[in-house]
Amino acid sequence: MKKLNHYILAAFLLCSSISIAQQTPASKQTKEKAIAIIGATAHIGNGEVITHSIIVFKNGKIETVGDSRVIKMDFSNMDIIKAEGKHVYPGFIVPNSTLGLGEIDAVRATQDNDEIGSMNPHIRSLIAYNAESKVVESMRPNGVLIGQITPQGGRISGTSSIVQFDAWNWEDAALKVDDGLHLNWPSPYSRGRWWLGEPSHLKPNKDYTKQVEELNDYFLQNKAYQNGEKPSKHLPFEAMQNIISGSQKLYIHVNDAKGITDAIEFSKANNIKNMVIVGGYQAHQVVNLLKQNNIPILLKRVHSRPTSDDEDYDLPFKMAKILVDNDILVGLEANGGRMERMNSRNLPFYAGTCVAYGLDKEEALKLITSNTAQILGIDDFCGTLETGKDATLFISEGDALDMRTNKLTRAFIQGRDISLETHQTELNERYSKKYKE
């Protein structure tokens, strides 16, 4: 019996080792030797394109970006990557993501993106982030190398943090800790409960005013706490100090025009200095208000259907262009429906759809690089291919916004040459061999 138990344990360990196989994070780029990518078309991420580029990075930072036909330098102590005919891009950034907070939707034990309770400003998503997630790993072959890891649920969900997608643990992954607080704005409308025989169309939410008042009361209580003597610590209010001071952003998740308008007024009334709209499906109806208050938007998933019968069928596809044409700072997110984590890998193709519906290609690229970096407050070290910034970039055989030609050959995060192998690429290779035989 004991021998049988040993066999069972050995089989279990073997299966476990196979099921949790993970690519080892890349080693840090050395100070002694630089890497030079020569000849590729460089898409800088700020609208500029260099057709015969040279990009040199060392110790994780970009040192040179320019035209290879003009710049002359000594390559004797460099690793040379010849990339003629290929394209170089800054790593794509996915905001408002639950990557690393959940693995298998059908297994509750793997879900850590939602906490019990309504007001949870003290909840920190970063410490729950699983750097060894197979879903996170699968982002990299499409060029998605950075993400904002965001909690969900309740009225105030907690704080997000920004991570890079090649790390041993959450401490290694962190690029910006606790960048902002996430608030889910109440909806002015609700749908009838079909299971009770009610009509399924939209109707006014009779509790909307009460829910907004509850939010105002909570922020007033927080203000009183911040200005009081604080005989004992109130952890949720302690976590909101940086929102009031303006060093942390307030991300308000809201889609309808009335909700956006009320959320902006709420922020002004509570002296919120840094506010971002997340979702913003009807933002095109309030562009003047957004411009007047300089409010950026992380736009709901492009590959969505219209939510109303009287909307254009292609409204979600052309929304980014409408907002960009009205000088609104826009970034794209993958949220806005089911399977958000898995759909995050399609981020570049959402930008590609914006191109198909009228947006300039380099403007569309900014939606997932420099614009998003600016909105998240990380544009000082990533989002574009510029001297002094992190060498977080990749080389593609073709246009990275087109799923037919987005084929990465190399990728780097902070100068580290990362693996593009994943559980899915391994399965692809395995079964490709089977059917070739």
Give a written overview of the molecule.
This protein is of the alpha/beta class and 437 residues long. The protein folds into two domains: 21-90 and 383-437, Urease, subunit C, domain 1; 92-381, Alpha-Beta Barrel (TIM Barrel), CATH 3.20.20. The protein is built from 14 helices and 20 strands. The chain has helices at residues 2-19, 134-137, 170-173, 208-227, 235-238, 241-245, 257-269, 287-292, 315-325, 340-343, 347-356, 361-366, 370-376, 423-436, and strands at residues 34-38, 41-43, 49-50, 53-58, 61-67, 78-82, 87-90, 92-97, 144-149, 156-164, 174-184, 189-191, 202-204, 249-254, 275-279, 297-299, 330-332, 393-396, 408-413, 416-417. The strands form four sheets. An eight-stranded mixed beta sheet has the order 8-9-10-11-14-15-16-17, with helices on both faces. The protein has a six-stranded mixed beta sheet with strand order 3-2-7-18-19-20, with no helix packed on it. Strands 5-4-1-6 form a four-stranded mixed beta sheet, with no helix packed on it. It is globular, with a radius of gyration of 23 Å. 43% of the residues are buried. Keywords: Signal. Residues 355-399 form the Amidohydrolase-related domain.
Write the layout of secondary structure elements.
Layout: H1 2-19, E1 34-38, E2 41-43, E3 49-50, E4 53-58, E5 61-67, E6 78-82, E7 87-90, E8 92-97, H2 134-137, E9 144-149, E10 156-164, H3 170-173, E11 174-184, E12 189-191, E13 202-204, H4 208-227, H5 235-238, H6 241-245, E14 249-254, H7 257-269, E15 275-279, H8 287-292, E16 297-299, H9 315-325, E17 330-332, H10 340-343, H11 347-356, H12 361-366, H13 370-376, E18 393-396, E19 408-413, E20 416-417, H14 423-436
Parallel strand pairs: 1-6, 2-7, 8-9, 11-14, 14-15, 15-16, 16-17
Antiparallel strand pairs: 1-4, 2-3, 4-5, 7-18, 9-10, 10-11, 12-13, 18-19, 19-20
Helix pairs in contact: 9-11
